[in-house]
Amino acid sequence: MMADLVFLAERYIWPLGGAAGLGLLVGALTCSVRPPGLYGKVSALLALAALVALVSAVGSGAVRGRAGLALDIAAGLALAYVLGCLAGCLCRAALSRLRDQAEASPPTA
């Protein structure tokens, strides 16, 4: 199992990096500091359920051969994208807090 993950990471490093970079960009641009509404919560739950189903299918080894390799690659790309989205959202939240602190403090001269 670990050898398969190392092989995928070595073979598909550029697509994984691209998925993470795209996720970082999307997370930074679409993340809202305000609490999400019902649509956002339902979307997040559906995305989480799909990711859990994908990871459980990969972890169980139910799909073998070429289709299993494609499923492993899809799981890796999805995970890289989601982690990039989370990182982008966290960066945006941190920068928003810094901006708010800078606006609240009086300028020193």
Structural class, from helix and strand content?
mainly alpha
Low-confidence stretches: none
Gap between N and C termini, in Å?
60 Å
What's the count of strands?
A: 0
Strand-residue proportion: under 5%
The helix/strand series, from N terminus to C terminus, equals: HHHH
Keywords:
109 residues; mainly alpha; 4 helices; 83% helix; elongated
How would you sum up this structure in a few lines?
This protein has 109 residues and is an all-alpha fold.
Description:
The protein is an all-alpha fold. It has a domain at 34-104. Helix content is 83%, strand content 0%. The chain is built from four helices and no strands. It has helices at residues 2-11, 13-30, 38-60, 65-104. Helix 2 packs parallel to helix 4 and helix 3 packs antiparallel against helix 4 (65-104). The longest helix has 40 residues, at 65-104.
List the helices and strands and how they pair.
Elements lengths: L1 H10 L1 H18 L7 H23 L4 H40 L5
